[in-house]
TrEMBL record:
Pathway: Cofactor biosynthesis; tetrahydrofolate biosynthesis; 4-aminobenzoate from chorismate: step 1/2
Species this protein is from: Zygosaccharomyces mellis
Family of the protein in this entry: In the C-terminal section; belongs to the anthranilate synthase component I family.
Name recorded for this polypeptide: aminodeoxychorismate synthase
Catalytic reactions on record: chorismate + L-glutamine = 4-amino-4-deoxychorismate + L-glutamate
Amino acid sequence: MTAFRSSIPFNVLFINSYDSFSYNVVRLLEQQSHKGGYGEVRVTTIHNDTFTHVSQLKKYLPHFDCLVLGPGPGSPVNGVEDVGLLASLFEDDDLSQIPILGICLGFQAMCLSQGAQVNELMTVKHGQVYDIELTIESELFKGYPSQYKSTRYHSLHVEPSLGLIPLAHTNDENGQLLMAIQVVGKPWFGVQYHPESCCSELGWLLVSNFLQLAQRHNECSGRCDYKGSIYDVHVYDELDKTIDKTPIYEHQVDLPTQDISIREHNVCKSPLLTLYLCDAIHDFKFVMASSSQDPHRGRWSIICLPNENSDVLTHYTSLNKTTIYKWRDRNVSWKDVNASLQYGFVHPCVFSEDKGQFWQTIGQFVSSRLMSSRPDLPFVGGLVGTLGYEMGDVVPSIQSLNPDAKLVYIENSIVIDHFSGKMYTISLSDDFPVHIMQIISQLSINDPRLEWPSELPPMKFDIEVSSDASYQHAFNACQDYMRRGDSYEICLTRQTQVTPHGPLAPWRLFQTLVTRNPAPFSSYFDFQDLIDLPKDRTLCLLSTSPERFLKWDHDTCELRPIKGTVKKTDEVDLQTATRILKTPKEFGENLMILDLIRNDLYELLPDVRVKDFMSVEEYQTVYQLVSVVQAQNLSDSIYSGLDVLKHSLPPGSMTGAPKKITVQLLHEIEQRKRRGIYSGVTGYLSLNNRADWSVNIRCLYSYNGGYHWLCGAGGAITVLSQGESELAELNTKLDSALQCFTNSE
Ligand SMILES: C=C(O[C@@H]1C=C(C(=O)O)C=C[C@H]1O)C(=O)O
Ligand SMILES: NC(=O)CC[C@H](N)C(=O)O
């Protein structure tokens, strides 16, 4: 009996209130497996609206050793609309015998149910690390020092009340605040702070102590007898399925090796080489160049050469349609494709599918071609292109004929390693274009001369910017949401439209953009993918992004969120910027996104680490605060990098936290405008199972071949932000790209 019982995991039911930190809690619980007498910890996660009322959950409760109620947006005072199941959870009599740990929102809901008041804080705390002091000795804090540091994310707080035993507190401008409690006479505990944050000390010990308390309670009360009698794995499977986490494609353990034709050339290490080569190649090309470098980024540049074998995959989220045709296929006419897209006529290249199905289409395309060859190269061929903001799972669809995703299959490419001075001409089908090889042989690849103009040709531009008053209005709306506890950080953005008065070739504009604002992710994409594609339906993207979103190889995934920006001026040097970027405002901004990114990775992968904590990086016009988060052992997972990409779009640094609710709020605040390409990602899925995607910021893009250029800019708003300085920051970022137009004439 004992052996049988110990092989049954300690089952935790986690109620996820749609926070961007939920999976940090789930993994922290799992990581405590075998650290106490409770054995292996198995967490089953449901959402707080998976069931509308506790009566629907009741039959599952005996199958769990304890409940953990996660943090989240909203207020328990607003009842079911804000907190779903948590509003009725505590009404159930059986619950008084079930051990519960409430975290932040979960804690507040628990305390409210005991008659305590939940009020708004005078001074809200988001992403702020405080000293927490133990009020009395308790089992929950066994092994703790009397004071320790933890991260707080809250707008609301619980007033002390008769039914609550205070266990820990903190002090700030609001006075003394309750930070942990036990409910009198019940195995219910709660913490106001976030033990799962990467800046919280001893969070693991709190969780482990709680699990031990729960185990002991269940033994004494006889609750855990269920393990012998009613244990039924199907219950957990049934609940697990309420949150869809099916992998996009099945993981292949042994990828085939494939012959790739690769020629290696010795070249100079200058990043100018890529641009110099591109100038000489007049064929269609997509470029992902490093025009600036540092020890961590900017090592590689890739020039992609589409040909007649290049499939072009385009997705339109609001039309629920995908088109697939070959690059500039003579037999495919845009007119017919367009008629099918708009009026539903049958066309062999147009497919009805939603964005979830489109991810599967990409998955199928790539997984059937994956290979183990040349893992040393970042790219050997594969899909390259851009995925817009609306490709994100949580983003509402807005009617549009503009594509949301465009990926092109590339067989022939030039890959340059700027660190070692090597260049690789690569062909998956052994037909690297002879004339391009000839061009290369005639160029002085060891001494590239690049004279790119920092000015555009003399020309007038109309620049349409929305008013500062409307920004201020939106800023105030953000502040209201954050004060009420609906969001902790909101990345507020706006877009500017530039109309050149004459013809301006995208490549010419790219030259000036890159010269003015060199960046590690300089991308050029001009998708003239059908011969008769009219200019006013041609998607173009010119990017000088400083921000990596996600890269992966067969075993590691890395995200690199930027959050925290200071303008470079004569007075602000690296040292001053570092001081400013380490103030509570910037620190909190970065920490929130760092914890969110950990969550995005933890949702799918168990082994996530912060590799670089808030380093200051210098760019042409700004200093930025950057963190690096990695997930290891991807090869042991059922998930692929593509799953991580799908699940973590749109980038947290472009939304704020919690991501789901904040994206919904932004939809209203930004007046239901599509963000489109801006706030999406650009990069590649290489067939050797490597990928690299940058965030679409500091870029110019056009849906009509350059008649109008759009440029988005924004920044994270927190409760510590001030409208005027946020607007100034937005304008600094806008200027990184927009300066091309404003300084010339
Ligand atoms: C929103 C933008 O940038 C994002 C916001 C940042 C910030 O708030 O500090 C920094 C980098 C980006 O993640 C933009 O450049 O338009
Ligand atoms: N992190 C949280 O769970 C926050 C809870 C609640 N929305 C507040 O702002 O106080």
